[in-house]
Amino acid sequence: MNPPIQKLLNELENFGKTNFTFNIPAETGKFFYNLVLISKAKNILEIGASNGYSTIWLAEAAKQNNGKVTTIEISENKIKMAKENFNRAKLKNIKIIHGDALKEIPKLKEKFDFMFIDAIKRDYIKYLKLNEKNLKKGAVIVADNAIIFKEKMKHYLNYLQNNKNYSSVLVPIGTGIEFSLKLR
């Protein structure tokens, strides 16, 4: 991670703690960064940009793979913050879609090799199912809050953990990450 981006991430991490932005923890960001690098992901979909903290982790890694991030965020205020942070990070490989992910995902035509979900917990299953046709074989899917919001995510977790098309495991970092691989 280059020092100016790391400095910005540290600033956003502190901002999130004091302004109830609920960013992913730094260890989760680093985990995602490494996953993007190791999987050589080039086309990433993020559901829930917030102020862009997680997007920066993803986009910085994707940049090294000559890849990009498409992020969907419903809040106009959060999009404004995210855009400012992307400009500060000098990241040009991010496309922001303003809208409800449940309405925007069906419009996507691209194929994704990485998907990060961090939005309305009860809708995780809907986000995944709406995007399944666009997930390549071998795609990585990560979902935040799988420990602290396990009950709200139970349909999503059950679907992935009991589906022969996926290999899925709970990773106990941050607030819990359900880490899944699309097998077919």
Short note summarizing the structure:
The longest helix is centred in the N-terminal third of the chain and has 16 residues, at 3-18. A seven-stranded mixed sheet has the order 3-2-1-4-5-7-6, sandwiched between helices.
Mean pLDDT: 94
- How do the strands line up in the largest sheet? 3-2-1-4-5-7-6
CATH homologous superfamily descriptor: Vaccinia Virus protein VP39
Calculate Rg over CA atoms: 15 Å
Secondary-structure blueprint:
Blueprint: H1 3-18, H2 26-39, E1 43-47, H3 53-64, E2 68-73, H4 76-89, E3 94-98, H5 101-104, E4 112-117, H6 124-131, E5 135-144, H7 154-161, E6 166-171, E7 177-182
Helix pairs in contact: 1-3, 2-3, 6-7
Notes on the structure:
The structure is a single chain. The chain is of the alpha/beta class and 184 residues long. 41% of the residues lie in helices and 24% in strands. It has a single domain (3-182), classed as Vaccinia Virus protein VP39 (Rossmann fold, 3-Layer(aba) Sandwich), CATH 3.40.50.150. It has 7 helices and 7 strands. It is globular and about 40 Å long.
Q: How would you describe this structure in keywords?
A:
184 residues; Rossmann fold; seven-stranded mixed beta sheet; 7 helices; 7 strands
